[in-house]
Design a protein that fits this description.
With 723 residues, the protein is of the alpha+beta class. The protein is built from 27 helices and twelve strands. The chain is globular and about 90 Å long.
């Protein structure tokens, strides 16, 4: 019987070879295929099993009628006529919830066609031409500044303050990222003298605005709508123009008065080119050991990170929203502008327009003793003493409780409203703290309150970690003397307003860090700078304010809030039992106990001798020597190959005549054709006899010895070796 598939007879299968495999080895002939006889009873049994597996039978065991005209009997009859034919196609798919045309439209790519602004990260690239162009501009400005300083010395008018003023004017003339560099240097009291940082903090934020057409085009490109459909009464004159962006004002359709911040065009590429040029300069200075190798790495990274963070308005939008939402839960007298995320992206930020009095205006009224202005402000509930206390309270909340803190609270970034309500703007520069850093600051404040100078020194040293090889005992002694002077000034009743702030302490602290070549983390510098600004502004508003007394008052308020949280948690634990998080905490505590026992045992078994730093010095010296030798061999062989190639070319008469006919100025170099230069070794010997190359070898040797000596004179730091 020849089976068919409905289209005609099927060819007989090809006969298999007469040999087979048994247990993976060649065996005898394969077994004959078993002939299965399909009886009507067996066909009926198979059909019933198929229908039962498909769930097509009802509870009575009868097959329901098929929509396609096939019943159980017809299926059995067709199977008896042609057992090898496939079963007829059935519509087993359930009815769709959506029409086919709708589902077809939904069968698209999973990724969005237009990525959200948070998904798109700003990436700016630069080339060497842009880098060297910016480097030339910076070099020309630096030479001009040095020439002016020399002229001041000739005329006898040179001073540290005058140098700082000239530096500020030079940076303002560069504009763009140079202004940001100046702002960053104003924070780095550990790198520059204090007079420089004070003068750089005065840099103007009124830069030349860019054409308003660019702002309008960028807004319409992002919103994909005409400007008039979203913003009404758009003011084409910017109300603010800084180094990164210009700020415009307009009204929304619902009547909200908003401020629109649009980033400058090509500012990202300029920033990246400036960072590349600055990195090249710092690497050159480190190579010639004008500055300690590796000292500028953290500064360059922090500077680049700060610039890129301020270019991303999506981050600023999120920081503003987080600060506003979290501060409203704790303090009703501090706020931030409302943001409109649906109208903002990485280079556009839309916030509510905040009205009120600038903090700088209040400062001028207080310091100039403008009584009519102070009387008008008092009628609005604005009192300098209350504003000063609330500034310190806002700083303490941001550092010790909030997720982030405002790191640039200068008087142009704070608006004072009625009833002395404070509104912070411009969250481009924010700081975040880890639990370890928060605990260190808490301990420092607590020990200051307890008049424990020794523990204050330990907390201050912890802020400097990881420490380079320095004399820790000497640094600790100098910090101890500094903190004693500060503590005596705070306890005295006859001190000036600036002596009741921590400004003098932190300035000296950062000067010591600079003196001992200790790099500081960017968040620590931001916190110190923000604290200096908060306390200085508070003292200028109200001369009798005491920052540490205000901190103790804040601790009392924070302690009351913590007491409520602890009591509620204890009640829940007592009446409701531990939660799954509690059990995980118990497990972590058990692991910590085992870890503590292990570390204690290792500490007890540790020998009292420490040689790790001496080995490190030896390894460093060997690495410097090997690096110098490799450079010497590489450049000598390279120069030898070039010299040998030059002699081979000039020895060829036809090629020499061709070169002289086209380049006659090379004739003096072709006269001394040395006949003894026949191999690479003689060529290398001739290179070594070359005067300029010997000078380069001497410079490289001098720099290598200088690097080794700088490392050898470092202090040894004992390490516990526990991990």
């Amino acid at each position: 019987m020849t089976p068919t598939n409905g289209d005609g007879p099927v060819e007989e299968p090809v006969s298999l070879p007469k040999t087979g495999y048994v247990n993976g080895k060649p065996g005898g002939p394969p077994p004959e295929p078993v002939q299965v006889r399909l009886t009507p009873r067996r066909i009926a049994s198979i059909s019933s099993a198929v229908e039962k597996a498909l769930g097509q039978r009802d509870s009575a065991g009868q097959a329901p009628p098929r929509q396609n005209g096939f019943s159980g009997d017809t299926l059995r009859a067709e199977f008896q006529k042609n057992p090898a034919a496939p079963p007829p196609e059935r519509n087993r798919r359930s009815k769709s919830l959506l029409p086919p045309d709708v589902r077809k439209r939904l069968q698209a790519d999973i990724l969005p066609q237009v990525p959200p602004s948070r998904m798109h990260q700003g990436e700016w690239k630069t080339n060497r031409a842009q880098m060297f162009a910016r480097l030339f501009i910076y070099t020309w400005t630096a030479l001009k500044w040095l020439t002016e300083l020399g002229w001041d010395k000739i005329r006898g008018r040179d001073s540290l303050e005058r140098r700082a003023v000239r530096l500020r004017k030079s940076i303002e003339s560069l504009g763009g990222s140079a202004v940001k560099l100046g702002q960053q240097l104003a924070m780095r009291i550990d790198l520059l003298p204090y007079e420089y940082t004070v003068e750089l903090s005065k840099m103007l934020d009124r830069m030349t605005p860019y054409p308003v057409e660019y702002a309008i085009g960028r807004i319409e490109q992002f919103l994909r709508r005409p400007l008039g459909e979203v913003f009404k009464d758009f003011n084409p004159v910017p109300i603010g123009s800084a180094s990164v962006a210009c700020v415009f004002s307009a009204y929304l359709e619902n009547g909200d008065y908003v401020a629109i911040k649009v980033r400058r065009p090509k500012i990202g590429e300029t920033f990246v080119a400036d960072c590349a040029a600055l990195g090249l300069v710092l690497q050159t200075l480190e190579f010639f050991t004008f500055i300690r190798p590796g000292l500028s790495h953290n500064f360059l990274y922090d500077f680049r990170q700060m610039l890129l963070d301020e270019l991303d308005f999506s981050k600023e939008c999120r920081y503003t929203e987080l600060f506003r939402r979290r501060v409203h839960k704790r303090m009703d007298f501090v706020s931030a502008p409302k943001v409109y995320p649906e109208l903002s992206c990485e280079d556009i930020l839309v916030t509510e327009f905040v009205g009120g009095v600038w903090l700088r205006e209040l400062l001028n009224a207080v310091e100039q003793h403008d009584e009519p202005a102070l009387l008008l402000l008092k009628e609005k509930g604005i009192e300098p003493e209350l504003v000063a206390r609330r500034l310190l309270r806002a700083n303490q909340f941001g550092v010790f409780e909030n997720l982030l803190f405002h790191a640039d609270p200068h008087p142009s970034n704070v608006v004072v409203q009625e009833d002395s309500r404070l509104v912070f703007i411009d969250f481009g520069a924010c700081g975040v703290y880890t639990s370890r850093e928060r605990n260190i600051w808490r301990q420092f404040s607590y020990y200051h309150q307890q008049e424990d100078v020794g523990r204050m020194v330990q907390s201050a040293m912890a802020l400097l970690e990881p420490l380079p090889p320095i004399d820790i005992d000497e640094l600790s002694k100098r910090l101890e003397n500094l903190f004693w002077e500060d503590l005596n000034a705070f306890k005295s009743k006859h001190t000036q307003w600036w002596e009741r702030t921590s400004a003098r302490v932190w300035i000296k602290y950062l000067e010591l860090a600079r003196e001992y070549n200790v790099p500081l983390a960017l968040n620590t510098l931001r916190m110190i700078r923000s604290t200096l600004l908060y306390e200085t502004i508070g003292a200028r508003l109200y001369g009798r304010i005491n920052a540490f007394k205000e901190h103790r008052a804040y601790l009392i308020t924070a302690g009351k809030a913590a007491r409520k949280r602890v009591r509620k948690r204890a009640q829940d634990l007592m009446f409701k039992g531990p939660t799954p998080d509690d059990y995980r905490t118990f497990e972590q505590m058990m692991d910590m106990g085992n870890r503590a026992m292990y570390l204690a045992q290792r500490w007890l078994d540790q020998p009292p001798f420490h040689f790790s730093m001496m080995v490190d010095k030896f390894v460093y010296a060997v690495s410097v020597v090997l690096r110098a030798m490799i450079m010497f061999v590489f450049f000598t062989l390279g120069g030898g190959f070039l010299d040998l190639l030059w002699h081979l070319v000039t020895h060829n008469q036809s090629l020499s005549w061709h070169l002289l006919s086209h380049y006659p100025f090379i004739e003096p170099f072709m006269v001394p054709i040395a006949k003894n230069v026949t191999d690479i070794w003689s060529a290398c010997k001739e290179v070594l006899m070359w005067g300029p190359y010997q000078f380069l070898i001497g410079v490289n040797l001098f720099l290598s010895i200088r690097k080794v000596m700088m490392r050898m004179f470092d202090k040894d730091v004992k390490t516990s070796g526990m991990s």
